[in-house]
Amino acid sequence: xxxxxxxxxxxxxxxxxxxxxxxxxxxxxxxxxxxxxxxxxxxxxxxxxxxxxxxxxxxxxxxxxxxxxxxxxxxxxxxxxxxxxxxxxxxxxxxxxxxxxxxxxxxxxxxxxxxxxxxxxxxxxxxxxxxxxxxxxxxxxxxxxxxx
Length: 148
Hints:
With 148 residues, this protein is mainly beta. 0% of the residues lie in helices and 68% in strands. The protein has strands at residues 4-16, 19-31, 37-42, 45-52, 64-73, 81-93, 99-109, 114-124, 130-139, 142-147. β1 (4-16) and β2 form a beta hairpin. The radius of gyration is 16 Å and the shape is globular.
């Protein structure tokens, strides 16, 4: 299927319990000509988007919806099914001239049990400018919050 491809690299470090841990990730993301996600590869997973909704051209406070759903596999061969991912959004009030957009990802294993959640929060202006505010993630019983 035709798609646009974008490769992203993230580097840096995290300090965990006084120990500095290097961070270096590479991801490949595929989207259609309207930038609707089709899949991604990175780390130890390969995602195939199975359902998408239309990206709204305008949003209002309290708008919510499912951005997309995906199947998660161990590799591009899709021989080992790991589970699913559902990515949703919510628009919340911020100031008189800005709003907060949260992108929420919920991963489930093949039994349907939630294994991780993450929330990326952005401040958006009427002109459509996005500024990342914070990222919060829960993996098992580990909570990680990164504030920008």
